[in-house]
Give the backbone structure.
Amino acid sequence: MSPDEAQKKIEALRKELDHHNYLYYIKDAPEISDFDFDQKLEQLQKLEADFPQFDDPNSPSRRVGGDITKDFPTLKHKYPMLSLSNTYSREELEDYLKRTQKALPDQELEFVCELKYDGAAISISYKNGELVQALTRGDGSQGDEITNNIKTIASVPLRLRGTNYPSEFEIRGEVFMPLEGFARLNQSRIEEDLEPFANPRNSASGSLKMQDSSLVAKRPLDCFLYFVMQEETLIDNHYDAVLAAGEWGFKVPQPEKGYLRKAKSIDEIFEFINHWDEARHDLPFEIDGVVIKVNSYAMQERLGATAKSPRWAIAYKFKAEQQETILESVSYQVGRTGAITPVANLKAVSLAGTTVKRASLHNADQIAKLDLRVGDSVYVEKGGEIIPKVVGVNFTKRDPQSVEFEYLKNCPECGTGLIRLEGEALHYCPNEESCPPQVSGRIQHFISRKAMDIEGMGSETVEQFVQAGLINNIADLYDLKAEDILPLERMAEKSAQNIVAGIAASREIPFERVLFALGIRYVGETVAKKLARHFEHIDHLMKASAEELVSVDEIGERIAQSVVEYFDKPEHQDLIARLKTAGLQFEVVQQEGASKSLEGLTIVISGNFERFGRKEIKELIELHGGKNTGSVSSKTSMIVAGEGMGPSKRKKAEDLGVKIIDENEFAEMIGL
Ligand code: IVH
C-alpha cells in the first residue's frame, strides 16, 4: 500500500471507529458487533504500526493506554475550579432563591436542575475539535495533568463530531465508576488479596492517579460532562450548552432520562429533588445530591462568585440514608487466607429501598471505637459503600445491664486460637492446613478462571469434594479419578469425565498462572507474572531471600516477606513437590531463539525499518529480555531509529543523552 493510500485508509478507519464508539458509549445504540469493532481496530493498529508517520495522539487506538507517567505535572487552571455551597433543607434552598432574586431584582429567574455525581472533577480542554489536555481539580487553582489517563475513558471524545463547536474551549465534568463495575473491580481485588476500595468515588479518583495508563484503561470509568466554559459566546445559556455538548460527542445528562430539567419555582425544583431522593437508588451510579444552576450566562455573570463558589449555583445534598435498629449478634466470616471479618446481625430494617439484616463492622478496632454492645440500638447507614455499615450507637437506649463487647478468640470454623499480626487490622485463623473455609477457599482460588481455569468445576463441586473427603489440598486434585467422584450425589458420568479432563488440561497452564494459583498472600496476577519472569523456575524462587525478592521491580517488603514465609513451610514444600510430580508447569518456557542479551534495557523504537517490521522489532526486544516502551524518558537505555524518526523524539533523546542506534547495530546486539 502506498503511503497516500495508507493515510486515507487510516483516517477513514479512525472516523469509523470514533463513530461506533459514540454510538456504543454515548448513544447506547451500537450498530456493529464487538467483534467487527475489534477487527477494525486491529486493522487500524496494524496500519499505524506500518506507517508511523501518520501517528495521531487522538487516534481511537490510543484508548488502550500504554503511556506511563511517574509524576503528574501540576498545572494552573485557566479558570479556577470552584466548589459549590451546600444546602440540606427546603428552607435553606428557599433562602438561596430569595437571595438570588434580590441580586437580580428585575429578572425572571430560570434554573436548571441536574444530578450531583459522586466522583472526581476534571477539566478537559479542546482545540480545533481535538482533546489537548485534562486536569484534575487539585486545590482548585492548580491540578494534575492526567491527559493520558482521561483518554482511556471511552465516553470522553478524543475528537469532536460535526463542526459546530467553539475552536477552543474547556469542558468540566465528573469521572465516576458505575456501581456494577465497582462491584466487579472490588471482587477481583478481594480475590487477589488486595484491599478493596471503600466506595466508587475513591476508586474513580484512585484510578485517575495510576501511573500506567493501560491499567486505567481496564478500570470501568465513565464521565458526565456538566459545564462548558466558552470564550466565544455561541450559546447564551447553560441548558442549551449542555445539549450542544451532547451533539459534539460528549456524554451529558439527558433530559429524556430526567437527569436534567429547567425549573422556575421552588416547587418545581423540589419535584426534581424529591424524585431523585427516591429514584437515586435505582441509578447505575452514585449521586450525593442535586445541583441547581441559574440558566442564563448573562445572569451567571452578573451574580459572580465568592472566593470559594459561584453564586449562580448551589448544591442540595441528600441525607445519607440512615436507620436505627437493634444489633442482635455479631458473627464472623473466615476467608480463604484465614482473615476474620465481623458481621453485624441486625433486626431487619428497611433502608434505601432494601431490607437490611446484616452490616459490615470491618474489624475489632472499629467495634471498640464505636463501643458497640450486643442488644444496642445502632444506626446503620448506606453511604458510598454497597454493604451498609454500622455508624454509631444510640446510647440513650443502652441497657444498663449490657456488657462490654468481647471480640472472638477462636476460629468459628475450626476452634483454633486467632492471631493478630503487628500492624494489621484483621485477626487471622492460623490453621491453614485444616480450617474448612481456608481449605476449600484455597482450592476454589486454584481452579478459578484467572488461575488454573479448570473447566467443569465450580465452588460447589469443591465444597462437595472436600466434604466427601476426596480432596484436602490442591495437589489432591491431580490424584482424582472419574471413579472416585462418580459415586457422589448428583454426579453424572459425563460431568465426572469433564472434571477429570479439565484437571488434566490444567497441566499446560503456564508457570506464572500456577504461581498465582498457589494463593500466596499478596501474590496477585501481576506480582506472579513479575516473579515468574524474574526467577524463571520455582526452585530459584523458593530459595530466594527477602532481600533478593525486593530487588525485583515493584516487589515490596510485604510481598517479599509473605513469599519467604510461604516457601519456608515444610507443608508447602511437600505440596510443590507433589504438584511437580503431577506435571504442572514450574518454569518459564523459553521461546525459541530467546536470550538475555537485552536484559535490563528499556528500548524505544522510532521510524520505519528495512530489515524488520516494527512489530517484529518489539517482539525481538522482549524475546531477548529487554523492555519496549513508547516514549523517551530518562529511563530509556537506547533508541532504535529507522527512517523518519520524529524530530521531537530525536531532540528529547539528545537532551537526555540517550544513545541512538540503527537497525543493523540492533541486529548485532541480538546476534542476528
Ligand atoms: S457544577 C463552579 N455540576 O461537585 C461549580 N458540579 O462541590 C461547578 N459535581 O467539584 C461545578 N455534579 O466535582 C457541577 N452536575 C454538577 C455536578 C458537580 C457533581 C461536583 C464537582 C464539583 C463539586 C462541587
DSSP finds 24 helices and 20 strands in the chain.
